Structure formats: C-alpha cells, structure tokens
Amino acid sequence: QVQLVESGGGLAQAGGSLRLSCAASGRTFSRYTMGWFRQAPGKEREFVAAISSDGTYTPYADSVKGRFTISRDNAKNTMYLQMNSLKPEDTAVYYCAARARGATTSVNYADWGQGTQVTVSS
After folding, report:
1. pLDDT (tens digit, 9 = 90+) per residue, 39-86?
2. Contact predicate 59/44, CB 8 Å
3. Of the candidates 56, 74, 58, which has an alpha carbon nearest to the alpha carbon of residue 66?
4. What is the pLDDT of residue 49?
5. Do 79 and 21 touch, CB atoms closer than 8 A?
6. Residue 119's closest CA among 4, 6, 8, 5?
7. What are phi and psi of 115, to 5 degrees?
8. Is the dihedral of CA 70, 25, 46, 94 positive or negative?
9. Within the chain, how many helices (H) and strands (E) appear?
10. Is 120 in contact with 87 (CB distance < 8 Å)?
C-alpha cells in the first residue's frame, strides 16, 4: 500500500494559480503511474491528469489541457499539479492516486490521498 498526502490547495481568484503536491510513502514510488482527480459537490470524481513512472506520458482531461501541468520528482517521492488560469469550474476537492489498475484515466487506482480543497472565486 502507498500512503499519499496532498497539500497546496486553497482559495484563488479566477485567472490565478495554485500548485498542488502529493507526497508518497514507500521506496517504490518511481515504479508507479500516478494521477490527479477531482470531485465537485454533487458530481462524480473525474480524471484531471496522470503521469507515467518515468514522466514521459502525461495525459490530461480536455477541460484542463493547456492550463494544468503534471510532474513528478522521483527522488523526493512527490508528484505535482501546477494549475494556471484557474476558473470557477475548477473548484473541487483534488485527490492524488497511485498504482493504476487499468486505464490511467479511470478512477481504478489502488491508493488515494485524503484530498485537498481548491476554491476559485470569480
């Protein structure tokens, strides 16, 4: 099992930026595909972005493409999500996930963090 802890959420104005971090436990972090997901009130959890173990494959949801950037530092066991040009519709609880068990864009990951709230005001 991989333990994940998100940080960096908060309040931002539309057009602003936030950077989320996801710290992972364990010595095998570098082996895992990781992902970011989000869930707004009353909605299902949705895919935001994912990153392969070596960082070379990074799919994004169409709604964030060109605005968000996913990255990872395997030496620090940490994954990041740089969010620019934020919109009110980006407001959600953001979750990091580890060990995809199927398609990287699905919610079928083995491990999840507790989530961090991102609120974007207009």
Report:
1. 999 999 999 999 999 999 999 999 999 999 999 999 999 999 999 999
2. no
3. 58
4. 98
5. yes
6. 8
7. 95, 155
8. negative
9. 0, 10
10. yes
